[in-house]
Amino acid sequence: MKTFHFGKDRLTASLAIGLARKEITGVLSLETLQKVQHSAKAVEKIAKGDRPVYGINTGFGPLCTSKISTADTQLLQENLLKSHSVGVGEPVDPEITKLMMVLKIHALAQGFSGIRLETLQAIRWMLEKDIIPLVPIQGSVGASGDLAPLSHLFLPLIGLGQVSFEGKIQKMETVLNKFNRPPVQLGPKEGLALINGTQFMAAHGVIVVAKLHNLLSHASISGAMMIEGLMGSIKPFLAELHQLRPFSGNQHVAQTILHLLHQSEILASHLQCERVQDPYSLRCIPQVHGASWNAFLHLKEAIETEINSVTDNPVVFNPEHTISGGNFHGQPIALPLDYATLAASEIGNIADRRIYLSIEGTSPGVPKLLLNQTGLNSGLMIPQYTTAALASENKGLCFPASADSIPTSLGQEDHVSMGSIGARKALRVIENVEKILGIELLYAAQAMDFHAPLRSGKILTAIHQHIRERIQHVDSDRILYEDIQTAIDLVKGGDLLHLAKEVADRQGLTFETAWTELFSY
Questions:
Q1: What pLDDT is stored for residue 510 in this prediction?
Q2: Is residue 515 part of a domain?
Q3: Same domain, yes or no, for 250 and 380?
Q4: Pairing of strands 2-5, 24-27
Q5: Are 440 and 458 in the same domain?
Q6: Nearest alpha-carbon partner for 61 in 165, 158, 196, 179
Q7: What's the pLDDT band for 58 if we cut at 50, 70, 90?
Q8: 3-class SS at 4?
Q9: 451 CA to centre of own chain
Q10: Is residue 219 domain-shared with residue 97, that is, in the same domain?
Q11: Bridge partners of residue 171, in order along the sequence
């Protein structure tokens, strides 16, 4: 099993997910252990001194001028976790909770937070034992870090709060008793180090990176299938066109489509047709999908910078040098998350237009409503209502959360990022677009059926057959919601991407493009 060194190695979105899923082992090197211990000793020295340092021997937020005695240091940190555990709503997905723990371990292990080694190891122990805190999804404004969610995440360290363990919800006190393990006694600054940071929104961002990558990759497949089904032109995807406007995303999409359509009999059958040009939803796939790929690249860079950063406050360099700054402010990832939300929504918008185009009956050989016998049968009229509803819902979710700000903490925190809200919205939009693309696969496969015995290229033919093994051609009206869910699951599961790669490798074809590595995660 691959090993990752917390606080030392560079973390990526895929590595973070691997650590959360226990596909990768996370360890602390000797060098990291020494840095953590050095930082903890610096904080201990500050706590015993007379010089006021925020959050170590003072109160928090607007109470930063209140001096705290050495004797009350532990109570101060425990009270911080208790008073800030004010989240509401359903618990976040357990995988996101695990990611929050992974990201916090990596940030604290860099040795600038004053965390003690025993506290850091306690977090690792919880993660290894699959003791997953219940973290309410609402309550963060994404400014002083994700205070409420992180407070809920680490209440169990001190024996409080609820966790999911062994398939049921339990009090952490009960779980600790099972292991005959005492709660952590927090030292100076430790409570603040635990709850100051962007790990809630960043963990969501990691999932957004992974899901958006999967979404965009499937959009190339469903888009290419629609080109085949509707007998679209290959010319808008030729390399010489995109060399004149060399956005990396555009070139990546165009080259991917060319690979998917390679040696297509359907394409060859109409190369000399009289159609001058296709509607935008086909012709502009490289430009529209490509712009969303470029947004993905922006998000990936921002998230991976964030998850390798120190985002708590104050930052401890040595006993004489601490900085109370704003590394916890979520704005650097809040803006890219809003951008990614729009990028995902646009993929849904253009896919819905292709779906509508496919039922108009204007493409050669493809009947209206994608059914030969209509009247008594509605054909594939109504699933497009669903994609229209999803696309419209996404438009309402595209208002940027980062455009809003509400002062908190008696005005001390007078500008907030709302990045946590933006991150949650991004996932909602992506989930909606996964459904749209699933329905597009259903429509595109149906359209391709009408061109038999002509076949597409080897990759798309294999994908089409894979779909047909699970979803039958629609000959007359039937209940479709199970078929739709099957198609959505194909998008979410990534099976079609694996199949495309397998076929390409087996046939000696090139599926990956010159830009694949750039747009991987």
A1: 78
A2: no
A3: yes
A4: parallel
A5: yes
A6: 196
A7: low
A8: strand
A9: 38
A10: no
A11: 162
- Kindly state whether residues 140 and 231 are assigned to the same domain: no
Q: Predicted confidence band at 145 (pLDDT cuts at 50, 70, 90)?
A: confident
Whether 313 and 322 have beta carbons less than 8 Å apart is answered as no
Place of tokens 């900085």: 323
Show which of 197, 230, 259 is a domain's final residue: 197
Q: Say which amino acid occupies 317.
A: F
- If one counts every other C-beta atom within 10 angstroms of the C-beta of residue 415, the result is 13
pLDDT in tens, 236-265: 999 999 999 999 999 999 999 999 999 999
Q: List the one residue out of 112, 100, 84 whose CA is nearest residue 193.
A: 112
Spatial neighbors of 377 by CB under 8 A, at least 6 apart, are 371, 476, 477
162 φ, ψ to 5°?
-115, 150
pLDDT attached to residue 59: 58
Q: With respect to residue 153, please indicate whether it lies within any of the assigned structural domains.
A: yes
Query: What whole-number distance in Å separates Cα of residue 440 and Cα of residue 461?
Result: 16
- Return the CATH number at 459: 1.20.200.10
- Assess contact for 273 and 231: CB atoms under 8 A: yes
Q: Which residues are catalytic?
A: 54
- From CA 163, how far away is CA 153, in angstroms rounded? 9
**pLDDT of 143:** 82
Question: For 288, what's the count of Cα atoms within 13 Å in the CB-facing half-sphere?
Answer: 21
Q: Which residues contact 319 (CB under 8 A, 6 or more apart)?
A: 42, 45, 46, 49
Question: Do 157 and 55 share a structural domain?
Answer: yes
Residue 160 belongs to a domain with what CATH number? Answer: 1.10.275.10
For residue 516, being part of any structural domain is answered with no
Helix (H, G, I), strand (E, B) or coil at 25: strand
| Rounded Cα distance, 163 and 172, in Å | 6
pTM: 0.95
Same domain, residue pair 262 and 343: yes
What percent of the chain stands above pLDDT 90?
81
- Of the three residues 150, 171, 197, the one that is the final residue of a domain is 197
Please count the other Cβ atoms lying within 10 Å of the Cβ belonging to residue 388.
Answer: 15
pLDDT tens track for 164-180: 999 999 999 999 999 99
Measured in Å, how far apart are the chain's first and last C-alpha atoms?
A: 20
| Residue 110, CA atoms < 13 Å, CB-side half-sphere | 19
- Shared domain for 262 and 172, answered yes or no, is no
Helix-, strand-, coil-residue percentages of the chain, each rounded to 5: 55, 5, 35
CB atoms within 10 A of CB 160: 17
The per-residue pLDDT for range 323-375, each reduced to its tens digit, is 988 999 999 999 999 999 999 999 999 999 999 999 999 999 999 999 999 99
Please list the residues that pair with 168 across neighbouring strands.
165
Largest separation between any pair of C-alpha atoms in the chain: 86
Q: Which domain holds residue 72?
A: 2-197
Q: How many domains does the chain have?
A: 2
Residues 167, 208, single domain; the answer is no
The residue behind tokens 């849904």 is 348
Q: Would strands 88-91 and 321-323 be described as parallel, antiparallel, or unpaired?
A: unpaired
